[in-house]
Each structure stands twice: as C-alpha cells, then as structure tokens.
Amino acid sequence: MAKVRVYELAKELGTTSKKLIEVMEGMDIEVKNHMSTLDDEEARRVMAILTGQAESAESKKKKAPRPDEDKKDSPTAAEKKSREKMPDKTVAARKTRRLPEEKAAVKKKRRKVRIEGRTTVGEVAAHFEITPAELITRLLDLGVVANINQALSSEVIELVADEYNLDVEFVADPIEQELLGEEKVSDKKLIERHPVVTVLGHVDHGKTSLLDAIRQTNVTAGEAGGITQHIGAYEVEVSGKKIVFLDTPGHEAFTAMRARGAQVTDIAILVVAADDGVKPQTIEAINHARAAEVPIIVAINKIDKAGANPERVKQQLSEHGLVPEEWGGDTIFVQVSALQREGLQELLEMILLVAELSELQANPERAARGTVIEAHLDRGRGPVATVLVQDGTLRVGQPLICGTTTGKVRAMLNYKGERIAEAGPATPVELLGLNDVPLAGDRFQVVADDRLARQVAEKRSQKIKAAAQRTQRVTLDDLFKQIQEGEVKELNLIIKGDVQGSVEALQEAILKLSLDEVKVKIIHAGVGAISESDIMLASASNAIVIGFNVRPDSNARRLAEQDRVDLRLYRVIYEALEDIELAVHGLLKPVYREEIQGQAEIRQVFKASRLGNIAGCYVTEGRITRNSLVRLIRDGVVLYEGKLASLKRFEDDVREVSNGFECGLLLDGFNDIAEGDLIEAYTMKQVN
Which of 150, 293, 410, 578 has the CA that lies 20 to 30 A from 448? Predict the structure, then answer.
C-alpha cells in the first residue's frame, strides 16, 4: 500500500504540516510530526475532509437526520472545526457552502474592494482598512505564512475578504498579464533537479567547518577574505549527482528570506555539537525549518571531541519532536566530524535519499525564474545579486524583472567565480546587470519585452509606496491621536538592552505603568544590538522598538526608515517610562530628533602619551564632520557619547571625511577604544 509523509500531503493540499496535524488529531489519526507517514486510506480520508468531498456527500441527505440514523460518515466536531482553517486549494469548496438566500443577504451589507494586479500583504491590508499585523495573524490562522512584502494569490485574498465581510473585484493589470503570463508546462519537459540545502544550527557548532569539509577547501581560517565575500551558495558533486548548499549566516537570514515570500530550500541540515548539545539557537533553527516545511536531517558534529555524547543529543532533540529512526521516529541522524572528515559521505547520501523521496523537478526549457539569495552594491560592478535559478534556464543577454527593478543579464559567475553563459534549474549564480539592488527574497523572471518590464517595475514601486502611505504605523509622537480615534487599543513594544538586568528592569517598570487608555504588550525582549530581525518583527506586529544603551546596526536603521518603524533609544530608564506615559496622554512634545550623519570602523589604535589613544578609522557610511556629536559602539552597546577632540586626514586637520576614506580621530576625554569598535556621528535636529 502506498505511503505518503505528512509534509508531502500538506504541500499537495496547499496547507502547513502543523494545520494538517491538528486536523488529523481530530480524526483520531496518530501522527508524531511532519515526517510521519500515512497509508493510502488515511491520506484519502484527510483529503476528503479538507476538499469538502465528505461534506458534499452529507449534504445530499436530509438536513435533520433521525436520532437512530447511522452517523458513521458524519463529520466529527473536530473535523467541522478543521474546515474553518482551509488552505488555498479548498477555497472553492468553502465558498459553495452558503445557501443562495444567505449569500444575497450578506452581499447587501458587504463593502466592495477593487484590487489590481500583483498585490502584497501590506497593500491588501490597506485596501481592507486593517493593520498588516492583523492581516498576517489572520493569514496564519488560515494556514498561510506571509510577510508584509509577500504577494498573495487571488484565492487567499478572497478567503480573507470573506472573513471581513468584503467583496473583492480583481482587475487584471494588462501590462503585467502580457509580460508575466503563466506558461503552460508539459510534464514531458520536466526533469529531475538538484536539491537545495541550507545548513542551520547554533553558532560555534561547526556549520561553516562542515561546509568547509564537504567542499574540501579551507575557508574557516580566512573567513573575512573568503566565504563571506563571495557567492553565498556552493555546488557539490556526489555519485554523479549535484547538491546545492546555501551558505547563510544563520537561521535569521534564512527566515528573513522566507518572510519575504522566498521558498528556496528543499532540505535543512541541523548541526548540533556532540559535546555541547541542544542550545536556544538550535531550537530556533528547528522552528524556522519547520515553519518553512522542509525535511530536517540532523548532523551530530564534533564526535571526535572529548565529552562527545551523541545519545544525549538524540534524547534532547527527541524532546523537540526530532526522533531518530532507530528509536521509531522519522528523523535521519548522521554522526560526523568536520575536523576528521568522518561521516561526510553518509550525510551526502542521506541528502540524496531525502531529495529522491521529494521528487524535485523543473522544466529547463521555460523562461527562467528564481529567487534573490543576497544582493549588494559593488563600487566597480554596480548592483550584484546572488540568485538561485529555480526553473527554466537563465542566459547572458536576457532581459528580466526582479521585484521593483529590471535589467539585462550582463554577466553570470558560478560558485567558483568562473564566467558562464547559461544556468539551469537549481543553479546558484552571481548576476550582474540589474539597474538597482534588489531585496533578498525578491523573485526574478526573464521577460520578452524589457520596455514593458520597466513599466511593471515602476507600477509595483508606486503601489508599494502608496500602500506604505495608507498604512498607519504606531509612533509615540501620534499615539494619543490614534488612541482617541480608536485605531490603537494595544501598544506593542520590542525592548533591546546592553545587559539582561537592564532589560528585565525596563520590562518590569513598563508593565507596572498604570495606563487605562491602552494595554502595553512586550512582544520581544533581548540583549544586544538592534538587528534587522527586530525591525522586521516590529514591522509585522506594528510595534515600537526601544533600545536601552544599545544601537541599531546600519542595516536595521535603513530597514526601520524604509518600513517607518518608530525606533527610540535611551540611556536612562525613567526617560523611556516618561515618554511612554506622556505619549499615551497626548503630552509628548519631541523637540529634537537625531539624524545619523555617518559611521566609521576603528581599524587600528595608536597610543600617544601626550594625547591619549588615537583611532585609525575607515568611514564605511555617510560622513564624519569635525562638529559631529559621536558615540562609540562595541558589539551593539554604547560605551561613550560626546564630541570629537580632533579629526585628521594624515597629518592635516580636516572639517569632514566622507565614505570610503581613512581618518584619524580623538574622542574628547575617552580612551577606552579597540579595533572593531564603531564610531557613529550624528546631529540633533529641532522638530517644529
């Protein structure tokens, strides 16, 4: 009898494994996790419930069955409840359940919403007059994982509209339809493609060393000049078959891409050190891989070290739902040593085995499409994007559209840095020729008409800007007004601090505030610099970020400006509490607003007995001026705020130093500087 894994059935039905497991629990079908198998009969029962076939059979019977009637085929309460959380492919079944007279009654009261072309979560939220956070939550309830910038299908939009008693009129964008119309794919042209693998796990558990050992190159020792500055994906050949490894910095980058609608990974390798066991980041990595609905293979690394205990690792992971096959579970465990190069062949063979079960296919003859893995602006080469071709074949000279930017493929480099003329399915390449830097997670597609592509990209950009203007963000400046208008009933906060004690003290003090007008909710608190993931969480949940003695990194600051997230930075706890109280009561009157001028990295420290420690710096962003206010930041924590005592280029005093140049600077009355510290220059601007 044919068997199917839970995650495979979920994929086929267009829902998540988690939702599917909930449905099966109500049907008394025993499953442990997404890797559990179902027999043919169980799979048929689940599909019948979720596609509405079981109910359509029931509807032919009388509306009120007799008490003695056989109810064996009637749906249980749990099964009925499960239908309320329908996936995309069951939307049609759900819409047929209302009686005609009910539909007519509802339609009279429903507001009509007009939606044109490709529409993102943020745009839909603006059309529905709700916050993106509320829409994202509702989508999660319906089994759809999406972020504010992700495009939604018409079926999903209709399903959500129904929840809000709205009617949707879809207006096709003729230009976009002409340019990006779906090609008909013949099954005969589909071929087996290579699996794409992401390595996740706790920092220091040997992710990069494992990749290093697999590629048989030594990049760990020279990390700065090797792995992080080149293409973030690599190919490995095993038994005549290729495996593509995505070398992400960690699960945060993995999630950031998925949050923007990118689903590029087929298999996740979870690396756990045999001598260290499961750590908080390990659990986070498991959750991120599960959310992405990819099969997990566990690599127990460092088995050669003293104190290695693989059995303890298995026990710890089984408590989080990853039960080894030899214990009756569904998770593949492989013991490896990156240092001694042990177990690597077995790990690669297991990857190929899981890939074979997944039946990964693509059509090399269609117009190429895929996803941006990472992108940056190169001073000599212009916008450079590392992309993964997921379907079709990408060739030099082809015009393409990528999110809100366009261009022509000027050149492509493979993972070895060699120029190539074409790239087939599941091939990572570095791409040159785009007109602007795309976002990680943006989808690209080869087009026939570059003029039309520019029109579509411009229209997308305008729609995103318009949606951003319509979307009301919570800020302390206008909090009172939003409370008065009934738009805000809950104030979401994200708190980041320099040490755990400060974070806990601030949390406790904020929660003790007596605020009848609004409920304060702390959705995340942590130690360290304010990161991109903090801003993404704030954007999705309409939260204000409060930093105590910490600063945002440059990427986080840019993202906060782009997503209009209110970022508040404090050195004294009572000032933060006072601002929140004044904002709630409409008394907060900001007089000055900080404007960042630039940032420099300390590359070398020169000791001068007469002057103190001089910082030899490289300006990485903006400019540093002689009159700037500055702060010294180490690992995201502010150590000093004050003025510059001097600013020099070589031996000369200068008024300013711009991005890309070196300088020497002296902090006024502060000498505790070290290589790697950041100098942030800013001014205080009066707000009228």
Answer: 150
